[in-house]
Amino acid sequence: MKLINKISIVSFITLFAFSCVQDDDYSVPQSIGQEENQKLVQLLNEIESGSADLMTISEVKNLFVSGEVNQIESNLVVRGYISSSDFSGNFYKEFYMQDEIENPSAGIKVSINQVDSYNQFNVGREVYIKLQGLSVGETNSGDGVIAIGGGGNAAGDEISEISENRASDCILRSSNSFTLVPLALNLSEINDSHIGLYVSALSAQFSAGLDGLTYVDPDEDYDTQRDLESCIDSGTLKLETSAFSNFNDSMLPTESSGTITGIITRDYFGDNRVMMLNTKDDVNFDSSRCDPLFADDFSSNNLDNWNIVSVVGEQGWEITPYGNPAPSAKISGFSGGSNANEDWLITSIIDLSTLSTVTLNFQSVVRYNGPSLEVYASSDYSGGDPTSDGNWIELSVTLDADSSSWSSWTDSGNIDLSSYAGGNVYIAFKYVSTSSASATYEIDNVLLTGE
Length: 451
Prior knowledge:
The termini are far apart. Helices cover about 5% and strands about 35% of the residues. The chain is mostly beta strands. The relative contact order is 0.11.
């Protein structure tokens, strides 16, 4: 059984340098109730005198140890701005807060045994949390979402909620309430560093095939995830909606695209990065759909959209249960040792006859050393051996160069293929290995768009 770790300032003073920020405005709020006012007056005085240390959200998150609950013993305080709201019922007994009103760099979850907290903890409200006696951990062990809670479970690997009575003493509002400026990102730019932040995903739309569906599957008792895709690159993200939200039976706006704004987090088990809405009004799809000319995220678990040609060797392109997210297409010349191979993965024919601009985008990851993957385009391929069939032009792309990690997925950049507009095009990934060097490549989220 794991024990709850107790953290005091002595144990991490060498990791962080705490100091009272004399330039901060610790003016006393006047419009939040006399008792709460008095508690905050005392807390701000403690910070200014140095008897309490004001931490950043990033510093609090750095106290987290995977699989453990860390209880804070020292007189530490963290300040933030509320980024989520349970007004619509999409959040339950929790709120998120971030470190800045605009251009935030860190967010954190706060687990609290309180519902309908949106009036007290409204979006943009400045709050101070007295951390002494509280804990840092995960509400569901392994979910990847660092949170502040009241204590720990018997196993010592999950935090419990802060009780409503305790919250009135340790979560103190100032009178300051601001309009948060959402962090504007493309879908491909969103990552786990944005968990807890109020983010606007730009140029997004719901994936094709979701026509006629609601935010929540009526057969689901808890949550439903719907796929979002980018209009400008190969980025994807899942929108998660609670069955208890007041818009659970609203139709998805699948006929348009635009901006969608919400909180970045992970699902219950931590399997997927997701966005959750504060309100359905934060979906601003005011442009027409941007369905791609060709798109494959390999979620179908097959390579049916591709022509696989093995010129040399026994190894070939295949589906792997890993990816960005999983699955993806994989190639390796290693089998009991490095082997000589030349393998091509070629798209089906893509019609560009009505377009004037065309862009290709994909993502790649590499492990081990070997010849670099190459990417080609052809307008006259006819389905045979690509070494003799068609004129192939090598494209200038960005590939993953970190052969030591499976997590270094790299975006190709937007590759201009407008010179092929007005006709047809094929895209090919050419892999080569030798008897002495065989890299392993995975590719994902291949996307061709045009206008």
